[in-house]
Write a structure and sequence with these properties.
Elements: H1 18-25, H2 29-40, H3 50-58, E1 65-68, H4 75-83, E2 88-92, H5 119-129, E3 154-159, H6 165-172, E4 175-180, H7 183-193, H8 207-216, H9 223-241, E5 245-248, H10 249-254, H11 256-267, H12 273-284, H13 298-303, H14 305-308, H15 311-321
Parallel strand pairs: 1-3, 1-4, 2-3, 4-5
Helix pairs in contact: 9-15
Length: 341
């Protein structure tokens, strides 16, 4: 007698396109999950019992670490370092990278709607903070760190959407590391990618109030002033949500071997020979094949804006930034590089 066929089922995987979902629903669930996981990289995460396996991996470990900053704010570099610590497993933007792509580019910051996070965002967050790597390879590239039999694994998650932070803190209670990069460094990078003049105020940031502040200061529609205020408002939202550790990107970039050990110690992550070698590899490579590459001389990248921004751009950016009180950068930090005589 032939065995009864395994019933088909819809494969519930975040980001699965509708056509692919319908095709896989015609296959046995386990087969469908294995086939789809070729695209989603860590195969066991798509099999029955995966959530229990993920829970066993992180049982007994300290609270997950959530590194939060702005797009182009240095979070990829620092996230790769923290996630490269012995015993850590790293997810790079599991929520942001699970969202539908936007035509304006990945520099978009998205607020929550009046009803809170939608189902896709909620599902991605539940998976991420459960340590369930049901994401594309670009989110959890180091597959060796996701072996199902590992135990005591410390989760390190990095995100670039501060407007989600209050919800994530209330729901998942991570240790929040707030990375602040000089606003001129962020703005110069955004301008180079063509993002600076296109990004609207996201929901939840109080765009009407910010527009009024710009108008009252006589800054009108100046894109550099607007971007400075945009950055300041987002950093303020991180402070209000409750960051436990604040780090200036420039401090880490200038001397990572000096700045990183105390940061790792504060987070309960080991600073050892393998991580030291990894940092040396990341920090000393001066070849930048793309603006998204993490292999860079971070000290050079951190100061590049001093020679690329025009004085009027820098002045407008600073005026917008300082419409909201900040404590991270003083007059000396805004000084451009002296022209070569």
């Amino acid at each position: 007698m032939r065995a009864a066929p395994v019933p088909s089922a819809t494969v519930e995987i975040p980001g699965l396109p509708p056509a692919r979902r319908r095709a896989l629903a015609k296959r046995p669930p386990v087969v469908a999950a294995l086939r789809w996981s070729d695209d989603h990289w860590v195969r066991w995460a798509h099999l029955p019992g995966a959530r229990a396996a993920a829970r066993a991996r992180t049982e007994g470990a300290a609270r997950p670490i959530l590194l939060i900053g702005l797009p182009r704010g240095g979070t990829s570099w620092l996230g790769q370092v923290l996630g490269g610590a012995t015993g850590a497993a790293y997810l790079r933007e599991p929520l942001t990278q699970s969202r539908p792509p936007r035509p304006e580019g990945w520099g978009w910051v998205e607020g929550l709607g009046a009803d809170g996070p939608d189902e896709q965002l909620r599902s991605a967050a539940e998976d991420a903070f459960a340590g369930l790597p049901r994401f594309a390879r670009r989110v959890n590239a180091e597959r060796a760190r996701w072996a199902p039999r590992d135990r005591g694994v410390r989760l390190v998650i990095k995100e670039v959407n501060p407007l989600w932070l209050s919800w994530l803190v209330a729901r998942h209670d991570p240790i929040v590391v707030h990375l602040v990069r000089h606003p001129a460094g962020v703005a110069a990078s955004w301008d180079r990618l063509g993002w600076l003049r296109t990004a609207p105020w996201p929901a939840g940031i109080g765009g009407d109030v910010l527009d009024e502040s710009l108008a009252h200061a006589g800054l009108g529609d100046d894109p550099w002033a607007r971007h400075g205020l945009w950055q300041a408002a987002l950093h303020r939202s991180v402070v209000q949500a409750g960051a436990e550790v604040t780090v200036r990107y420039e401090d880490v970039a200038r001397d990572p071997m000096e700045a990183l050990p105390p940061l790792l110690a504060a987070l309960g992550l080991p600073w050892d020979d393998q991580l030291r070698a990894r940092v040396e590899q990341y920090a000393t490579d001066r070849f930048l094949p793309s603006p998204f590459d993490i292999h860079r001389d971070a000290s050079v990248v951190a100061e590049r804006w001093r020679t690329t921004l025009a004085p009027d751009q820098l002045a407008a950016l600073r005026r917008g930034w300082e419409l909201i009180d900040q404590q991270w950068f003083d007059d000396a930090d805004w000084t451009p590089a002296l022209p070569i005589s």
